[in-house]
Amino acid sequence: MSLADPVELAIFQNAVHSIAEEMGASASAHCAIAQHQERRDYSCAIFDSQARVIAMGDHMPVHLGSMPMSVQAAVAAIAFAPGDIAILNDPFAGGTHLPDITMVLPVFVPGRDQAAFYVSNRAHHADVGGTFAGSMDLQTKSFKRASGSLQ
Q1: How far is Cα 67 from Cα 47, in angstroms, rounded to an integer?
Q2: Using an 8 Å Cβ cutoff, are 125 and 36 in contact?
Q3: 3-state SS, residue 122
Q4: Taking the alpha carbons of 90, 95, 97, 100 in that order, is the dihedral positive or negative?
Q5: Is 135 left (phi over 0), alpha (psi -120 to 50) or beta?
Q6: Are 61 and 38 in contact (CB under 8 A)?
Q7: What is the tens place of the pLDDT at every residue in 11-46?
Q8: Are 119 and 66 in contact (CB under 8 A)?
Q9: Contacting residues for 126 by C-beta, under 8 A, at least 6 apart
Q10: What is the tens place of the pLDDT at every residue in 69-101?
């Protein structure tokens, strides 16, 4: 087994991390929602072909801790093809709460039928439906009644 050169590994690590950071900067710059621009209530990450974390931007920690489970759930549930994207917010599939919506995009390279890697973004949305404004019915006893679940 050969060990990676520590200098090359550090260069690769920082390069990939900067991609995740740039994903977040682009999300913030192109979004007119105050939660994203002012509170940075979003997160971006890159995953390998087996849905394992490669890099995460320095965004919202609560998102980043559970995002890998959402990406794994999407990859397990969907036979992705080029152009597909999964959108989910299910707390039972790695979501934090229903207003945090996660998108998972597979990235394909020419000559391969399977995704080479995945990129993901999770962002808070002010209202995704339900019986009360803000998608926060504190008296509900039903997950389905609480707000809009994307499955």
Answers
A1: 10
A2: no
A3: strand
A4: negative
A5: left
A6: no
A7: 999 999 999 999 988 887 777 666 555 556 789 999
A8: no
A9: 33, 35, 99, 134, 135
A10: 999 999 999 999 999 999 998 888 888 777 888
Residue whose C-alpha is closest to residue 92's, from 150, 26, 25? 150
The answer for residues whose C-beta is within 8 angstroms of residue 68's C-beta and 6 or more apart is: 45, 47, 51, 52, 53, 94
Q: From CA 114, how far away is CA 81, in angstroms rounded?
A: 8
Q: 77-105: buried (b, 16+ CB within 10 Å) or exposed (e) per residue?
A: eeebeeeeebebbbeebbbbebbbbbbbb
Sequence-separated (6 or more) residues with CB below 8 Å from residue 82: 106, 108
Is the whole model's pTM more than 0.90, yes or no?
no
Q: In this structure, what token pair is assigned to residue 125? A: 């949305």
In the numeric block, which tokens belong to residue 38? 């002012």
* Angstrom distance (rounded) from CA 79 to CA 19: 25
Cα distance between residue 95 and residue 40, in whole Å: 18
